[in-house]
């Protein structure tokens, strides 16, 4: 059964988002455990990577240029679209905050399942997370009329726990254990790390179901907006990186489409307004449909390129 789930992990991410919507009480009950799953996934993913190579990637200007696209550029784009469509203040704040959000920590595992460069995705994920406090501060200053009081202590604790902690742990493990033994262990467990990703769509979609039960039309509106956000992030990133090759373009696109709304909410909380959590829940369905769409798109593009040759 586990091997079947691993083999078909990409469509099952979407299935678990649907299950979370159908079982809202279970989804909401599971929500508090997501940070533990997040830490475990980040640690296992980093264990499979050489830390010196990851640091070398983070030193590249191209990674930080991507982080600017991921946050600042998309904040401007989404803000302009929201203003043109006359979004209410709370909804406009929520959509721009989503644009400021870093990439999901599960992205490297998803990218690896697609057969692309997970190290590149990890570097992109870390870079977008590191610029998040600046981005979200700008969002709150521009779109929030209340006094801005970010929970900096909470953010830096999470930064240490979810990024620097696993990086240090991985470095120590690679330094202290024989590489051959560690490689055999990682080969056995690495296929199953993707199963941890299922927890995120399942645990986050419950807040959207609450909105759906209260106001179905508003929930449908939020779902359409969430789908539009994913499409804009994905499409613009793909076309921005298209000249660098199909693998890089699709890696950038899906990394941009995945947004770590859980971390953003833990930093700014209620300052993000009442629209943020329902929108974050609505995002789970299109977000976890993206891997399936990306795999299909990759196959179509490969066939198109082969036919040209």
UniProtKB/TrEMBL annotation:
Keywords: Membrane, Transmembrane, Transmembrane helix. The chain crosses the membrane at residues 12-42, 63-85, 91-111, 123-143, 155-177, 189-212, 218-241, 262-285. The keyword Transmembrane helix applies. InterPro entries: Na+/solute_symporter_sf. This is Bile acid:sodium symporter. The lineage of its organism: Bacteria, Pseudomonadati, Pseudomonadota, Gammaproteobacteria, Oceanospirillales.
């Amino acid at each position: 059964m586990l091997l079947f789930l691993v083999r078909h992990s990409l469509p099952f991410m979407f299935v678990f988002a649907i299950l979370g919507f159908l079982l809202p009480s279970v989804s909401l009950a599971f929500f508090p455990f997501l940070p533990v799953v997040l830490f475990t996934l980040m640690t296992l993913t980093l264990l499979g990577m050489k830390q010196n190579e990851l640091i070398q990637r983070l030193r590249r200007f191209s990674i930080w240029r991507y982080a600017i696209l991921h946050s600042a550029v998309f904040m401007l784009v989404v803000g302009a679209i929201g203003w043109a469509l006359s979004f209410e203040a709370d909804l406009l704040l929520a959509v721009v905050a989503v644009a400021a959000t870093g990439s999901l920590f599960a992205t490297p595992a998803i990218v690896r399942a697609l057969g692309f460069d997970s190290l590149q995705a990890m570097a992109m994920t870390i870079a977008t997370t590191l610029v998040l406090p600046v981005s979200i501060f700008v969002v709150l200053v521009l779109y929030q009329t209340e006094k801005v009081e970010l929970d900096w202590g909470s953010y830096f604790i999470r930064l240490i726990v979810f990024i620097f902690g696993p990086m240090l742990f991985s470095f120590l493990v690679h330094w202290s254990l024989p590489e051959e033994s560690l490689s055999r262990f990682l080969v056995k467990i690495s296929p199953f790390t993707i199963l941890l990703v299922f927890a995120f769509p399942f645990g986050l979609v419950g807040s959207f179901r609450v909105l759906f039960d209260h106001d179905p039309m508003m929930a449908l509106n939020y779902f359409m907006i969430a789908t539009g956000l994913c499409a804009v992030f994905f499409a613009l990133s793909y076309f921005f990186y298209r000249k660098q090759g199909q693998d890089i373009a699709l890696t950038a696109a899906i990394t941009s489409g995945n947004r770590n709304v859980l971390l953003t909410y833990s930093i700014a909380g209620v300052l993000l307004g009442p629209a943020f959590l329902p929108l974050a829940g609505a995002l789970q369905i299109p977000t976890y449909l993206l891997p399936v769409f990306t795999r299909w798109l990759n196959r179509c593009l490969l066939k198109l390129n082969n036919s040209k040759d």
